[in-house]
Every structure is written in C-alpha cells, then in structure tokens.
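Per reviewer request, we include the raw input and output of the structure prediction for the construct analysed in the revised manuscript.
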Amino acid sequence: MTATRLDAGQLVDRVEELADLLVDAVDGGASVGFLAPLDRAEVVEWWRGRVSEVAGGRSAVWAAHDGGRVVGTVGLVFPDKANSRHRAELVKLMVHRDARGRGLGRRLLTVAEQAAVAAGITLLHLDTETGSPAEHLYRSAGWTRAGVIPDYAASPHGVLRPTTLYYKHTAGG
C-alpha cells in the first residue's frame, strides 16, 4: 500500500472513494465528526469542501491506496495566524475496516509527521475519542497526552464522549 499527497485535482478525482472510506469509518464507530446513519451525499460535499483548503495550502490530505482503491487517509490543517504557523493539527486518520491490522495507520501517521517536518512544523496536535483504539497508536508513536475534555464530542450514535488531546514535537522541535 502506498500513500500519496493529493493535490486539489486529485482530491476532486477521489472524492467518491474518500466518501466511501469516511462512511466505513463512521459505520465502524469512529468518532470523526459525523453521526450515523451517515448521508453519503453529505460526506461527498464535505470532501468537496476540502478542495479549496488543499488548493489554498491551508490543509494537506494523503490517501493510501490498495489495488487502486483508497483504504486510508490522514490530513494536516495549518493555522492561518502568524503566531501559530509553527504547528499543525493532525486530522482524519482513517483506515478502512478491511485494511486494518497491517500497520497502515502507523504508516499514514509517519507520512504526516515527516511532511510536517519538511514544512517546518515543529508541533503537531490532535484530539481523539478517549478509550478509542487510536489512543494506543498515538501513544506508541511518541505522542504525549495533554489531557481529557469530558463530553467533548458525540459518538457516531449521538452519545457525548470524552476526548483526549495529544501533541508531539517534530524533529527539531
């Protein structure tokens, strides 16, 4: 499986596959900002909304492919304020349920971390549902737990859940 950074045109070309991945993540219980049952048309529009962000350099998206099909993503969102250009938020690290257990999540995380270093980013941060399988990945990859916010976001089934905040200094940070 390979992961490639998508430019705005490639994001447009892959929007249907990216929507399939996001639907699978929510159906599998991932708390990634959407509630179940997920309206696929809403997800397609959400991904289309990322095109201008990617084109404008405000975010970056990588997609992992297996046999030509998108099976994972990770993104970075770059702040636009002068006092925060040293950091980025890691977002939408997702792996399709049938591609899990093969190290793809870790590879995507590494790709995003290396891209952050190349872009001069010295601090990464993220939030994830407390108690989720993703927490093990982040801890084992050297991310530091900053704290927990109770009732931060609803699970895909609408139940308010705590969120754990993590950060990581990149090489040189």
